[in-house]
Amino acid sequence: MDKEERKTINQGQEDEMEIYGYNLSRWKIAIVSLGVICTGGFLLLLLYWMPEWRVKATCIRAAVKDCEVVLLRTTDEFRVWFCAKIRLLSLETHPFLSPKSTANKVSNGHAVHLIENPAEENRHELSKYPQTQLQQIRYFTHHSVKYFWNDTIHNFDFLKGLDEGVSCTSIYEKHSAGLTKGMHAYRKLLYGVNEITVKVPSVFKLLIKEVLNPFYIFQLFSVILWCTDEYYYYALAIVIMSLVSIVSSLYSIRKQYVMLHDMVAAHSTVRVSVCRVNEEIEEIFSTDLVPGDVMVIPLNGTIMPCDAVLINGTCIVNESMLTGESVPVTKTNLPNPSVDIKGMGDELYNPETHKRHTLFCGTTVIQTRFYTGELVKAVVVRTGFSTSKGQLVRSILYPKPTDFKLYRDAYLFLLCLVAVAGIGFVYTIINSILNEVEVGVIIIESLDIITITVPPALPAAMTAGIVYAQRRLKKIGIFCISPQRINICGQLNLVCFDKTGTLTEDGLDLWGIQRVENAQFLLPEENVCNEVLVKSQFVACMATCHSLTKIGGVLSGDPLDLKMFEAIGWILEEATEEETALHNRIMPTVVRPPKQLLPESTPAGNQEMELFELPAIYEIGIVRQFPFSSALQRMSVVARVLGDKKMDAYMKGAPEVIASLCKPETVPVDFEKVLEDFTKQGFRVIALAHRKLESKLTWHKVQNISRDTIENNMDFMGLIIMQNKLKQETPAVLEDLHKANIRTVMVTGDNMLTAVSVARDCGMILPQDKVIIAEALPPKDGKVAKINWHYADSLTQCSNSSAINSEAIPIKLVHDSLEDLQVTRYHFAMNGKSFSVILEHFQDLVPKLMLHGTVFARMAPDQKTQLVEALQNVDYFVGMCGDGANDCGALKRAHGGISLSELEASVASPFTSKTPSISCVPNLIREGRAALITSFCVFKFMALYSIIQYFSVTLLYSVLSNLGDFQFLFIDLAIILVVVFTMSLNPAWKELVAQRPPSGLISGALLFSVLSQIIICVGFQSLGFFWVKQQPWYEVWHPHSDACNTTRSLYWNSSHLHNETELDEHNIQNYENTTVFFISSFQYLIVAIAFSKGKPFRQPCYKNYFFVVSVIILYVFILFIMLHPVASVDQVLQIVCVPYHWRVTMLIIVLVNAFVSIMVEVSVDRWGKCCLSWALRCRKKIPKAKYMYLAQELLVDPEWPPKPQTTTEAKALVKENGSCQIITIT
């Protein structure tokens, strides 16, 4: 049954989960209720923390189809459990639904729309959701998504809109007419309200959730225990600390919720017009929209309340909310395959593929263009949390847990402390029984030892360093929405950079043009704005082939298009709404050159003649635009010169793509060489092409023609050369990263050779390094997939270039670090298409390519995310720095994503830099390293504090004594809290160093450091404890004891006699207690100084003035009360008077302890690593990180790197190891 009933939902997706069915069991609930009563509610808490236990304890397994509760578990490495209750959706509740037809549908296992539209039978529709009862559908909600039972697949599935499995044809044929009111009501019942709701939880709800945190429950237990033991002051101090912590935590959590709520709710409800089947227009609230509704886009624009596909007209949209680019984008209507010349009726609609025709939720439609009398219409495809904006909000509301070794080790360490506490617990009970102590006292003291060993202040202490780091980052303009990631940034050893706008300047400058005539390149020309070229097809293409538009009288659009249009100095005029209304067709956008550029056609002197010439002015109207598509890497337009009979098609785009769509005879023979020359110099090259269209193509036919019909058989016209300058700070920042052994990778949407050139210019690839281009080809015509290896640089100069072997590619290996394996002499470069083929067909080559892949060009947004994942799979800690434009997914997926854009798209990024410069990357890594080292220091210190106090108490328990309430208070508040919160203040070191901090607490040097300090502290404390008993003046202390033998002490003792006897029942005052108290108080300060590391990750300890001042004050105070007793202080701290020579002896013990502790810590720092690496070399230990292990393997691999001009083929039977072979092409 188990195997059979374990189903998987969201298969193959990021949020894939296993699902198990359960039914509530009364007898189990009864037993659990009894257990809750017996454990005083603790069992209830345990079940609240563990959803899996909760379900298994109260339910029995059942078939998923008929269950009442589902248990979900994520399939990623975190294996997180969730549970959800099954609900029933009643379909008879709406007046528009005819119960009879619904019953018929449902009884057939269908829950489709009503009978009004029988043609509607798309497979994505609600046709497979059967019911146990006629009018009910079973569903559950998880992370704001509803999952309905689907009888076809015998599993739960979320309700899809029109974004999956719907062809472009059916969007026009079946969905363009709109829905009837009945169908709309039916769908609304299933899809629910169209809104992205971010509920701000009430303060009470947040408080309960926060208070039920295991940490606070443990604190509550500690406080109750201390109150029963009359440690009221310390209990009160912990309560105040906890309250401050809870209030600040509630404030920050609620503030984040309110911010997100305001961002989403700002435009969540608007009034929209929708078309109904009978062509009537109905005005409804945007919250009532459902997939299939036809929405009318208003003239003056709107903020989109859903995802919709345009079926009529054109829109200018600002998509900065999604992409981070505030450049207006032109959206055109979805091509209608049924009216295209070259029908592509079977093409499925996909919001990503057809994003140039899709209006996304949350984006702003600035203005619309339309046919006369025809409205600009869009079919709603997704609503609510299914929209692109909804998915973005979900990723913020339900982030993936961050897995970091430090936090896993912290839990392990706490478990070790619990084990130590367990030993103390048993020891206390045995010792107390042997000494015939009362049962009540045994219980309190044995439990007390647990609260001492597991310090309640630990989480507060751990977060202090991160909070300080966050504050320092804010000062340098880096904002952080995920503070836990700051520590992870300290581990980054690879950073991916976007190119345009990140490494290079945002804008491009026109360097020049190189025209082609008679299939031959002319010389490059700098000035395009001249009389000779004004009427040329080349300039006409530059004037028309763009997506510029006028918004508020100002030209706006893609920066590249703007630069190109400004270079020719033409004027763009758009039709006004009034003009459009006068004509029976859409008025074209018109471009024309300025008058001074036009050659004079007649002698200028006759004014009448000039007036006569005016209508014949040179103007070009843009009839149809096919917007730029990053998948196709090109854009094209159909235009007509005023007065011409035939129309012209112009195209511009990536040179390789444009050349492939032109007549071969028009492309120059040296095209590839010229292109390579420009790209190697780092220029961005764009090619232009043109052809005259047949005269039979009328205006109306052009509006419905397919893109492929236009974009072929063109004449190649030449190249536009744009310059993309490096940002001033780029080379220096990359050099800093390389010095710190941090690998850098370029991920760009630009041409590969341009990217390689920029990588060389900025120092990512050194001049002497070789670049190997991996060109992967997918399987075709029965042939298997293959990779061709080319060397980017001409290797003809090298005599043995064709025989490069691994010996010719030296790899530096340093005895104490495998990091230097990255310093190699070759780099791989590939484009997005090759990357996809390699991922699919050459799985075993992926890790090898990740090890040396430096340039990834022409990468689509989802490929950037896949690249980050592939790098993480070989154990790199990956940082990603981009301008937020199309890096959203990668920024979110990386261990440390830094967005250089402050627009809303960057909300998905953990870090946002105020200054759009990559100098924020080393700053973030430095702060991350400082925060990480601070976390280690604090953790080590808190562990030592626990053990020192635990040992003090254990020693005192042996003589049936304990530390006094005010002694605990002084140690925990005056020493520990002050030290912890000031030792975290060390700022980051000025520069990045090659050494990296350890990633976890369980590392040899770190454990040795902690264990050695424990042994030292325990040793010196025991020395004092046992030595005091050997003193000639020692006796079991009683109120009349007089070891000091001074009148002052006699007077002091006798005058407080009554008070002493009262306190004596706890036996706090004795010589052992005083000795242990003084020695341990100094030990806390000694380990604080020993553990406060400075270089190479933090500023030295003495620069942390708060810490230095605090420690000095504490030292002076403890020294003063030890060497010069003050009666009032002694009374409060319950210290007894001891002879002066014993005070000096204690001082000597403390000084020797300090010397030994600091010398051991310095030795561990200096020699620990060497000894450890020597021990590892003796054992020949395999490196933990996969990339290091791989680098070692590749050192001895004679076949790697691949030789130039060779091909690697995928075997027909793809299997585990050795799934490819190398075949040399002869």
Automatic annotation (TrEMBL):
Occurrences of domain P5B-type ATPase N-terminal (ranges): 13-150
Q: Name one GO biological process term.
A: intracellular calcium ion homeostasis
Which Pfam families does the entry link to?
Answer: Cation_ATPase, Cation_ATPase_N, E1-E2_ATPase, P5-ATPase
Please report the stretch or stretches of sequence annotated as the Cation-transporting P-type ATPase N-terminal domain: 176-226
Phosphoprotein: present as a keyword of the record?
yes
The record's listing under PROSITE patterns reads: ATPASE_E1_E2
Q: Which GO molecular function entries does the Swiss-Prot or TrEMBL record give?
A: ABC-type putrescine transporter activity; ATP binding; ATP hydrolysis activity; ATPase-coupled monoatomic cation transmembrane transporter activity; metal ion binding; P-type ion transporter activity
Q: Which UniProt keywords apply?
A: ATP-binding, Endosome, Magnesium, Membrane, Metal-binding, Nucleotide-binding, Phosphoprotein, Translocase, Transmembrane, Transmembrane helix
State the protein's purpose.
Answer: ATP-driven pump involved in endocytosis-dependent polyamine transport. Uses ATP as an energy source to transfer polyamine precursor putrescine from the endosomal compartment to the cytosol.
Q: Which family does it belong to?
A: Belongs to the cation transport ATPase (P-type) (TC 3.A.3) family. Type V subfamily.
Q: Which PANTHER family match?
A: CATION-TRANSPORTING ATPASE-RELATED (PTHR45630), POLYAMINE-TRANSPORTING ATPASE 13A3 (PTHR45630:SF12)
Q: State the name under which the record lists this protein.
A: Polyamine-transporting ATPase 13A3
Q: Which species is this UniProt entry from? A: Propithecus coquereli
Q: What is the lineage of its organism?
A: Eukaryota, Metazoa, Chordata, Craniata, Vertebrata
The UniProt gene name for this protein comes to ATP13A3
